[in-house]
Amino acid sequence: MKLLQVRKGQFVYYQNELHKVYSVKPLAKKSVLMFRIKDMEQVASKAEEVTFYKPKHMDSFLFFGARYTLHEDRPAEEGGYILITKPDPDYMDHYSLNEFEKVESVEGKNVITTRQNTVKSREFLVMVSGEEQGSNDIVYLDKSKVSVEQLEQDAQLEEVLREKNAVRPSIGDVYLNLDNTGTAMVVAIAGEEVTLGTGERITFHELYKADNWSYLYNINDGEFR
Known about the structure:
Largest sheet: 8 strands, mixed
Low-confidence stretches: none
Strand content: 35-45%
Number of strands: 18
Radius of gyration: 18 Å
Shape: globular
Mean pLDDT: 88
Structural class: mainly beta
Helix content: 10-25%
C-alpha cells in the first residue's frame, strides 16, 4: 500500500498475518504502527509492506487467542464483543474504525458499550465466539504458507497468553485495554491493589482474570515484549 492509503484502524496483512493499524507516523522510517490481532504483539513496518483487508460478515479470526466469527444478523449480547466497521458516532461518543468494544447493555438492536458509547446496529458486526461452519478464516492471508506446528500453537494461544499475563505487576508495567485498544501504565501499588495511569484501581486478582486487560511491557525493559 501507499502511505496515503493507510489509516488508523484498518485491518492489514503484514508478513502473512492479520494486524490492526493503531497509528501512522508519516515521518518515521517505519511509519505504520500495528498490533497483531491474535496476540496483540506490536510491530512497525513500511506502508508498502502491508496489504489492506476489509472485515466482513462470516469472517473468522483470533482475537487475543480466542476464536470469533463476525455476524451481521446475530443480536449482540451483554458481555460479548462487537467490531465497529462503519463508525458514525454521535458527538458524545468516542470510537472509530474497527474498534473492539465490549457490550454493557443492549437497547433494541443498538448497544451501549463498557466505554459508555451508544453504537447503532448498522455500525457494527457481532463477534460470535467460535468458528462458525462456512466461515472465512482470515488469520492468515495465505494459510497454505503456515506450518502445522504454527496452527497447533494458535490452538493453544489463549491459554498461553493467560499464563504469560499471570505475573505480579510492577511500577511501569503497561497494559493493553482490549475494550478500546488503549494502554495504561501501573503508577502505584498498595497492598494487593494497583493504580493505573487512567486513575482506575484494580486488585492483582482482578487484573489477572480480567478479559479486557493484557500485559504488554515494562517501560524499563527498553523494548516491547
